Amino acid sequence: MGGTDIERLIALLARLPGLGPRSARRAALALLRQPQTRMLPLAQAMEQAARAVKTCATCGNLDTRDPCGICADPARDRGLVCVVETVGDLWALERAGVHRGVYQVLGGTLSALAGLGPEDLNVGPLFARLEQGGVREIILALGATVEGATTSHWLQDRLARFDVPVSRVGQGVPMGGALDVLDDGTLAAALLARRPA
Amino acid sequence: MGGTDIERLIALLARLPGLGPRSARRAALALLRQPQTRMLPLAQAMEQAARAVKTCATCGNLDTRDPCGICADPARDRGLVCVVETVGDLWALERAGVHRGVYQVLGGTLSALAGLGPEDLNVGPLFARLEQGGVREIILALGATVEGATTSHWLQDRLARFDVPVSRVGQGVPMGGALDVLDDGTLAAALLARRPA
Ligand SMILES: [Zn+2]
Ligand SMILES: [Zn+2]
């Protein structure tokens, strides 16, 4: 089926989330049909992004610079920190354009099943920001899953010693639902309807 | 949302068949999280495949060599030529492992709507093979669509002057269906149940 180079390409594509073996083959074929105009540009964009990508030391976002574009933007309200599970959640909120503050990306949730404990969450920079002062509100925008709720409770405990109001996005996040599959309107509603945690 | 390099990557991924904007973002994130171990290898596989891919001058298959692995394989029966619309169809038949002969990839079908005429089909090499002799049977494995049927009829006309039996895959290809979405069993049944065209 087209040489080991082509088979290797299909195998690597098939490992991407959202692409099964069938769509990986379709994608590979589309690329192979236009090697110069389609495949090389994508390969080069990937290589460039792979070399340029950085994790923001402040918030955990992925960007080509550190601090990331959001943390570096003087127009963003540093006093308003929205805590999310993943970079995908951050991107979803940015697409919805509903949060004018900054973020903290935990990189996951507490999960006994997955063996993820507090030491696996990217919370240090958040505590550092709180200790530096200037944070007026923390919005917990974690998924409405068991793990999201557990993580929210644990975070509230840890945040109690700072005298900063903590709210949780409420109405709008469906039960059992992750944030990054929601439409922009739902995300906006959820953020507006936040309540004290 | 993560720098122009990252946005460009997402935009290019979103143009792949089977990947919408949402799955393109998910795929990009998965790659960005593992730039060294996941993204660079895929980029390099793409670049390698883009530089290596060739269209087989004999059959129209895409491979890293010309003649392709199938045409070059001494174990394949050169007397049995299976005519398919696309390289994807060829790959589907190869995965099913039901055809021990060689192929001719037309690269499309006759389509008034798409403005595709006989001159757009890759049939020259098939006629050349017939003129050279040694072809004992031609199997038309085109989709059971209006365009597939039109193309089959046109090809039969053109093939009539060669004294070679022409069969068509029959039972198994659902009406209106393309070949490359069928399971292996259906493909095998369709090929076994071929009948004179
Ligand atoms: Zn940042
Ligand atoms: Zn070939």
UniProtKB/TrEMBL annotation, chains A, B:
Keywords: DNA damage, DNA recombination, DNA repair, Metal-binding, Zinc, Zinc-finger. InterPro entries: DNA_Rcmb_RecR, Rcmb_RecR, Rcmb_RecR_Znf, TOPRIM_dom, TOPRIM_RecR. Pfam families: RecR_C (PF21175), RecR_HhH (PF21176), RecR_ZnF (PF02132), Toprim_4 (PF13662). SUPFAM superfamilies: Recombination protein RecR (SSF111304). One of its GO terms (biological process) is DNA repair. The keyword Ribosomal protein does not apply. It comes from the Bacteria. A zinc finger (C4-type) spans 56-71. One of its GO terms (molecular function) is DNA binding. Residues 79-174 form the Toprim domain. Belongs to the RecR family. HAMAP family: RecR (MF_00017). May play a role in DNA repair. It seems to be involved in an RecBC-independent recombinational process of DNA repair. It may act with RecF and RecO. This is Recombination protein RecR. It comes from Gluconacetobacter tumulisoli. The lineage of its organism: Bacteria, Pseudomonadati, Pseudomonadota, Alphaproteobacteria, Acetobacterales.
